[in-house]
Amino acid sequence: MNNAVRVHVNLGNIRAAAEEIARKTKVDVLAVIKADAYGLGAREVAGAIADVAQGFCFFSLKEAIAANLDANWRKPSILLGPPGSMVPQDYISLNLRPAVSTVEQATTLRKANPIACVDAGMQRFACPASEIDRVIAAGGCREAFAHAPTMQQVKKFKEITAGRGLRLHAAASSLLNEKDAWLDAVRPGFALYHDAIQVTTKLVEMHESRGPAGYTGFSVPRFGVILCGYSSGLRKGPCMVNGQLRRVLEVGMQSAFVEIGEKDRVGDDVVLLGNGLQTETVAKEWNCTPHEVIVRLAGSGVREHASDAE
Questions:
Q1: Homologous superfamily of domain range 10-193
Q2: 197-306 carries CATH number 2.40.37.10
Q3: pTM of the model
Q4: For the segment 163-213, what is each residue's pLDDT rounded down to a tens digit?
Q5: How distant, in Å, are the alpha carbons of 60, 126, 155, 300, 306 from that of 148?
Q6: Between β-strands 115-117 and 99-100, what pairing exists: parallel, antiparallel or unpaired?
Q7: Distances from the Cα of 186 to the Cα of 26, 30, 89, angstroms
């Protein structure tokens, strides 16, 4: 862990986001806390929203066990990935429900009250339309879901499952503004976390440029050094120093060069995410999704949690 980087997680903001989603959609909220809640702490996040969410979503059995949720937070949670065990009791003991996509999985895990994962276009560990009735019958499934980032896929999912009396959900964060996608529940992940993380480090050196610097020979009038590099998930792109938008100019394994201004000094905070620097802004320059930005930078340093919404 990089002790030079602070990852501040605002649980109050996460709770406020969950409450707003519940008010807006008026359907069950199944909070996605997979990958340790995008790196923000599954246990802490679950505790903050346990009375708002009707359930939680993990990806795997292994990460659900690792989260070590308190017993009073263990709502009927589901696993979004393929089964990690074919022993029903492994799920029942933790109040988890596995996703199944084949007749074999559904038959073997029937006692664990499995959920049918339906392929609406994602083409990834999901049941094709031609097999849906066999899977539902084999597992005694009363619920089905799809990974559906588009409304076209939601429509296909509804068509595949129509008339079967199933509880349905397909909408993750990207479809929370689409009322027709809400169905019986929604599965927010990024929508809970995008405004809840701030990642900062300190300027440890500052220099007036004497010519091309660093490995790449970049050239700016003034630059500083921070103790965060690509081993901590950092890439070249935007940052903020003393409220001014600056740039991470070059990233080494455990340090990086950043652009600074005339008033910036050693010891000043360098904001890598949050405090006005949006995940979408960073994602655009990193050429990746905002989800990846959060996961990368959430694991970049020492994590600390606060409960008051900002």
A1: Alanine racemase (3.20.20.10)
A2: yes
A3: 0.94
A4: 999 999 999 999 999 999 999 999 999 999 999 999 999 999 999 999 999
A5: 19, 11, 9, 30, 33
A6: parallel
A7: 10, 6, 27
